Structure formats: C-alpha cells, structure tokens
Amino acid sequence: MYAEERQKVILERARRDGRVDVTGLAAEFDVTYETVRRDLTALERHGVLRRVHGGAIPVERLGFEPALNVRDSVLTEEKERVAKAALAELPEEGAILLDAGSTTGRLAEQLPSDRELTVVTNSLSIALTLAPRTNIHLMLLGGRLRTRTQATVDAWALRSLAESYVDVAFMATNGVSVERGLTTPDPAEAEVKRAMIASARRCVLLADHTKVGNDHFARFAVVEDLDTIITDSGLATGLADELEASGPRVQVV
Questions:
Q1: Rg (alpha carbons) of the chain, rounded to whole number
Q2: Residue 34: which H helix or E strand, with range?
Q3: Which among 68, 128, 147, 199 is least buried, having the fewest CB atoms inside 10 angstroms?
Q4: Angle, CA of 68, 190 and 85, to the nearest 5°
Q5: In Å, how far are 104, 139, 153, 185 from 121, measured between CA atoms?
Q6: Angle 51-218-162 (CA atoms, 0-180°, nearest 5)?
C-alpha cells in the first residue's frame, strides 16, 4: 500500500472511531511505528488530524476549524464531483446564493458562462473568483470578515439577507446528521447560514462524505430544511437512506 492510500485509510478510521493509535495502525498495516508517525505527521500538516500522545484525533473532535486553504487542499476529487453535480440544480436565470466553503468555491469556478445569474455570497474568495465574469451580477454581503473562513458575518450580512430572496441557496456545512442537524463551529457563521436558508426558495447542501455524521458547536438548520443533499461515494452504507428519510433528496456522486 502506498503512503497516500494508507493515510486516506488512517483519516477515515480516525473520523469513524474518534481517534487512532500508533500501535494498532502499525500492526494493521504491518509497518513500523516510525512509518505510522510519519503518516500522522503528514495528515497533521494537511490540517485534518491533531497528534496526541500515542496517536491522533481528527480536528473535528477537538473543536478545531481548519482554515479555508487547508480544507480546499483535501478531498479535491470528491469536491469537484459534488460541485459538478450541483450545476444541475442551477436555475436558467435568476438569483442564487453561494455560502462560504471549499466545495461551494468549486461550484463558483464551474458556473456556466452561457446564462446570466445574480450570485449572492458572503465569501470573499468566491467573490474574487466571480468578479471578472461579465455574465454574473455579483452581490457581496458585507460585515465582519472571518479570516479563517473568508466569510462575512454579523449584522451587516444579516440585514442584507433579510431583504433578499433567491431561487437556490447552495450551502456548506462542517457537519450534518439527522440527530443534530447542520452544524458549524462558529455561532456568527451559524446565524448567517440560518438567514441564508430562510432567504431561499430551495436549499441544496454540498457536503463531502466526511461531513456526514459529524457535529460541531452551533446548529443552524435541521435536515428537513434541505431540499437536496449532494455528497460523494465515500459515504458509509445506509447514511443516504437515513438522511432521505428526513425529507431531502440525497444524490451520491
């Protein structure tokens, strides 16, 4: 097994079980402790694990919120597939909302050039992506900028959303589960996300499989608030059916 393959399995195991330990991984993969430690160090540098004594814990379980550039560098193929599938949810014309996130950012890159759309976003990085596009009427929500996520939050953003109405909101999340709904680490971002969903006729969640089953500090929606969930084929067996039972259509790509 190549190092990249082994590290992918280690990360999946950590997210499933809550932690991994060096001894168990070395025995499972029939490699040395030092090889496992190098794998854990590589995953920590990618911002997805945190080393602890004897092993590692996924950042989600420690309350860490990886920066946007870190999140954008992992699961790139899966996020590209999810973003491409989301194109089918676009209206022929009208207004859409793009929530701040790494997968919604990929959707912004793939927006078609043959139709005019009004795009509302609280993401500085998405705004910079779309600014040169002459077929896009760009509406950037104001407010305090959270450097870690490149998202605007607080009263200015909320005031604009309260006076806006879009055809489709393409949402991002740090975690989603039937039990706890859609969650994110920061209460200010949660409040903006809640207002985004309220401003939309339809709501589409773009979430790679690692988000499903995770939960964070601040809840901003329940699964029933969603019309569609688009995720990737790494989703564990049975989770799609569980989510669909709460109302939204689940598309696995």
A1: 19
A2: helix 33-45
A3: 147
A4: 60
A5: 10, 6, 11, 19
A6: 140
d(C-alpha 119, C-alpha 121), whole Å: 6
Cα 121 to Cα 144: distance, rounded to the nearest angstrom: 14
CA 253 to CA 106: how far, in whole Å?
15
3-class DSSP state for residue 57? Answer: strand
- Six-digit token string for 235: 């989703």
Contacts of 90-93 spanning 24+ positions with Cβ under 8 A: 90/115, 90/117, 90/168, 91/117, 91/167, 91/168, 93/117
22 token code pair: 């060096």
Residues in the chain: 253
Alpha helices in 56-204 (DSSP H): 59-62, 68-71, 76-86, 102-110, 124-130, 155-162, 187-198
Please state, in angstroms and rounded to a whole number, the distance separating the CA atoms of residues 115 and 89: 14
